[in-house]
Amino acid sequence: MPVFGPVRSRRLGLSLGVDLVPPKICSMDCVYCEVGRTTRLTTERAEYRPLAEIEAALRQALAEKACDVITLTGSGEPTLNLRFPEVVRLVRQLSVKPIAVLTNSTTLAVPEVFEALSEVDYVLASLDAVRPEAFRRVNRPAPGISPGDLVDGLARLRRKMRGELWLEILLVKGLNDAEEDIRALREAVAHIGPHRVQLNTVVRPPAESWATPLDHGEMLALARELEAEVIAPSPVRSQAPGKALSEEEVLAYLARRPAPAEELSLAFGVAPEEVIRSLERLVEEGRLQQTTFEGRTFYRLKEEREAGSHSRAIRT
Ligand code: SF4
Fold first, then answer.
1. N or C: more exposed end of the chain, with fewer CB within 10 A?
2. pLDDT at 311
3. CATH code of the domain made up of 244-315
4. Interval 41-68 mean pLDDT
């Protein structure tokens, strides 16, 4: 069915989805893709779903269902559907609801796609890597697609569009999360100037079983570097009563950057009160110091101490 939902979207509210491309036609073959491996890797645009079929399903759904937003998406890249610009116009005619489009940003050089995207309310665009090696590793694009073109297209779109550009960066452990990758992404984000930057990781079964997520602590730390919000759901990490947290783990974390107790609580899956008790004990012992920034209390290593020099377990 070309129309599904509405489904409760974390980002958009009650979203009626319009699927413009069947599985699995895409210009990329991302290792983390929750749809599975791309079976037709292409940049060719075609009427992968007939406009008449989309229109009939959309008219019926809008007559029967309420929603907050209409989201154009696909089991692949939706803008590869040749009729994408007409679908945007059709939705505008049929509904006053905002239009969102999920795209992998690879078709921005196509003038009619660019024009259509610049007319919608929300473009949720992906950009996972800027360095060519990392881009190839994570996104496995069709020939001829370069990350530089994606960045330039997104920057042009941001200047032209009437709605909002939300950039999603999905990080896969060991593939696009190196320091140089994050630095390149930060520069690209500054160049593009999106309204929001959202950081995600592998949270659903991926196309490749070896594509693994970053843990929540790493995500929070990188989100701060990229001035992004984390949209990956917080993992629920239950701890057996009395299980020890390695002091080394906490001190190593704080050696990289100061952090508030709530961040550590999320990172280690421990109740905030228990984390605070441990941190206060480390402060009393002279291993950590507190500092206040923007009204929040952060914990950091005492300058003369180094992470990794302690091994006693912290009980929480
Ligand atoms: S661009 Fe989207 S649909 Fe295509 S492979 Fe990547 S995650 Fe899957």
1. N
2. 32
3. 1.10.10.10
4. 96
